[in-house]
Amino acid sequence: MLKNVVKFIYQKVNEIKNLVGDKKVICAVSGGVDSMTTAVLTHKAVGDKLVAVFIDDGLMRRDEDKFVTKELEKFGIKVKIYHYAENFFEALKGLTDPEEKRIAFRETFYKVFQKIVEEEKAEFLAQGTIKADIIETEAKIKTQHNVLSQIGINPQKYGLKIIEPLKDLLKPEVRRVAKRLGLSKEVYQRKPFPGPGLLCRVLGEVTKERIEIIRKATEIVERLTEKVRSFQTFPVLLNDKATGIKDYQRILGDIIVIRSVESKDALSAKAKRLPYQLLIKIRDTLISEIPSCVKVLYDITDKPPSTIEYI
Ligand code: XMP
Prior knowledge:
With about 300 residues, the protein is an alpha/beta fold. The chain has two domains: about 180 residues, 3-Layer(aba) Sandwich (Rossmann fold), CATH 3.40.50; about 100 residues, GMP Synthetase, Chain A, domain 3, CATH 3.30.300. About 40% of the residues lie in helices and about 20% in strands. A five-stranded parallel sheet has the order 3-2-1-4-5, sandwiched between helices. Strand 2, helix 3 and strand 3 form a beta-alpha-beta unit. The structure holds xanthosine-5'-monophosphate. The site of xanthosine-5'-monophosphate (XMP) has 15 residues, from loops.
């Protein structure tokens, strides 16, 4: 339990400072509250010895690079953007099995990250691992790509020493730290978004075209549910097709699921009862703005037995 946020920040900044000295620290930022908080905390400790990088893997929400750059600029942190989307799509080609997709993502992530680390010549790696990531990986529920030691990847092989300042905190505690550090409300209230990004929300093969469909759907759902209090609310693209009618033509189109859950720590979750009128509005917008979408479903399952994401 995090009792005193100011004390926590003070302690972590000192710990990082003592550990790192004047060496370089690399931190991959995704835009999520965990990695953004880690970057700002580390920057407080080591200043411009921090190299914040954003890996464009082609699986993020739209304009995420701009969002991250703008937010961290306020703290004097310059973000380097690395474009590697092609590598990820190539690695994901033809894969449909959820765990194989996660593994392909992770391996590509580490391959490109290795290149970046070599280029940047950093000695330390700051990671936004939090308590839930460790618990779920240990329980073998799924492999989280950001818990290196838990998935058999030896950080030493990168010649990197790991800093994980948030690893004893639960999500609500990370949010308190982020707020105190001065990150914007948009960041500290941001809903969790999985490391492998929109890949977790596309069943079946992950292609550029299918990611673009879910990216568009995500924009729509996030815009229409901006004021909804939930742990996460997002769309998912199913692998099946359904018959529908669009522009007076019978087509075999896409099926999009809306998932909205309430949870404290992501370890368990309850399906949220979104107002029916809102669901109708989401349905109409998805159908009209996504040409291939012919069916919209609403997921009412809790975790367990479901997980929050679909992969
Ligand atoms: P599940 O789907 O396992 O998700 O119930 C629990 C929480 O974790 C997020 N999630 C991930 N976060 N890397 C992450 O950083 C991952 O590989 C990953 N998979 C799931 C999910 O969005 C939810 O908040």
